[in-house]
Amino acid sequence: MFLGHYGVAFAARRAAPRASLGTTILAAQLLDELWPVLLLLGVERVRIVPGLMTASALDFVSYPISHSLLTAAGWALLLAGVHFALRRRGRDACILGAAVVSHWLLDAPMHRPDLPLWPGSRTLVGGGLWNSVPATLAIELGILGVGLALYVRGTRARDRVGRWGLGAMVALLVVLFVGAVYGPPPPSERALALSSLGLWLFVPWGWWIDRHRAPASRSP
To answer: Which residues, 6+ apart, have CB-to-CB distance to 151 below 8 Å?
Structure first.
């Protein structure tokens, strides 16, 4: 799952309007933002196997810290706790925590059975929908579309930055997704990890977009 996580981020921003889009992106993509760091540290492992799945060549050998259900819940509690300590907004903190856990839940139907329930778990979860490109496209684009529609209906652009900045982000996300599905696999595991660090850039980008948008109910 890739685009769907950003759909959750847009929807979470609508549900928690006092939180920044950058914060909801951080929450919805936190597991994938941590993953390349752990790869580069040698804590988690991935292999590139062309043809492994129709829409993905990645064999997730071991990623119990970033992508087990138990640790996802732990990261959710950590992020929600930090947000509550800083902002004192319980509802927003709960929505951010739910967005973190949603990452694992959305990954589960897409992956091969490689998602652990906890570190060391012998039970691995995965529905294998990445073996179907049409299903992958429909699910990813569908979730992104719903989340984006909720965000756009709940906000309005204050200026061109708020309008075109959002459009540019969505366009880049779709291009990256299509390239991952139809393009060649990454040249190496290290190149994959380094390029995946770019996901962190969407956090300040989301914050910047939000600074140029206002609640839709507010008069210009």
So the answer is: 10, 11, 13, 14, 21
CA–CA dist 104, 72 (Å, integer):
7
| C-beta atoms surrounding 47 within 10 Å | 11
d(CA 193, CA 36): 5
Joined tokens for residue 16: 């928690």
Render pLDDT for 41-82 as a digit per residue (tens, 0 to 9): 999 999 999 999 999 999 999 999 999 999 999 999 999 999
Tell me, yes or no, whether 106 lies in a domain.
Answer: yes
pLDDT at 98: 98
Report if residue 218 sits inside a domain. Answer: no
Indicate if the pLDDT at residue 220 is higher than 70.
no
Q: Which domain holds residue 152?
A: 3-213
Phi–psi pair at 202, nearest 5 degrees: -70, -15
CB 99 within 8 A of CB 8: yes
Q: Select from 53, 1, 14 the least CA-distant residue to 210.
A: 14
Q: Report the alpha-carbon angle 213-214-216, nearest 5.
A: 120
**Count of structural domains within the chain:** 1
Give the pLDDT confidence score for residue 53 in this predicted structure. Answer: 97
How far is the first Cα of the chain from the last one, in angstroms, to the nearest whole number? 37
- Contact criterion met (CB below 8 Å) for 69 and 103: no
* pLDDT category of residue 218 using cuts at 50, 70 and 90: low
Split at pLDDT 50, 70, 90, the class of 219 is very low
Any domain includes 115? yes
